[in-house]
Amino acid sequence: MAEFWADWGAAAYLLAALWAFFEGETFVLAASAIGAMTGAVDPWILMGSVWIGSFLGDQTWFTLGRRYGPRIMKRYPKAEAKMASATAMLLQYGTLFVLTFRFLYGIRNVAAAACGLAGMGRLRFAALNFIAAGVWAGSFVAAGWYLGALIGPERLFHAIAGGALLVLAVLLFRRFYRRRRQARTVPVL
């Protein structure tokens, strides 16, 4: 990744913004950790680029939810359950939900669309989204920077690989657990 930043220069920050447009936690952590170890990544420019990317991504999902949400919900019934969950949290927690949903795994894009679908005001969402994107960008860049400084370059690969394996194990366990639970609830005829 250090070679990528050295070869691509400013374009690497555009890629970071694009990655944050969709998700990007792992990429931001890795890029800032590399920056701490090699000096190839400027943390302030990285933070600014992922801040803008994250903000624009959630604004896009908000707009799509506001404009096409009801039609999409009719077409994709599986998405309706996630949207209902996100909408329930929005109604219960309001501003706090908008400020924190990007830290909740698996609902970031759905949550922004739910805010649009629920009829939240555009200016209110934009202001809260801007603040939340900044907090998200700053916290993940700082966490990656300090992680990179703490573990050093020789152990970074092992730490990233271990984290990826842990996430994979948790996802597989959840899938196995859900299937097993569903098998128990299906009535036998």
From TrEMBL:
The keyword Membrane applies. Residues 33-145 form the VTT domain. It comes from the Bacteria. The chain crosses the membrane at residues 84-105, 126-149, 155-173. GO terms for cellular component: plasma membrane. The keyword Transmembrane helix applies. Keywords: Membrane, Transmembrane, Transmembrane helix. PANTHER family: ALKALINE PHOSPHATASE LIKE PROTEIN, INNER MEMBRANE PROTEIN YOHD. This is Membrane protein DedA, SNARE-associated domain.
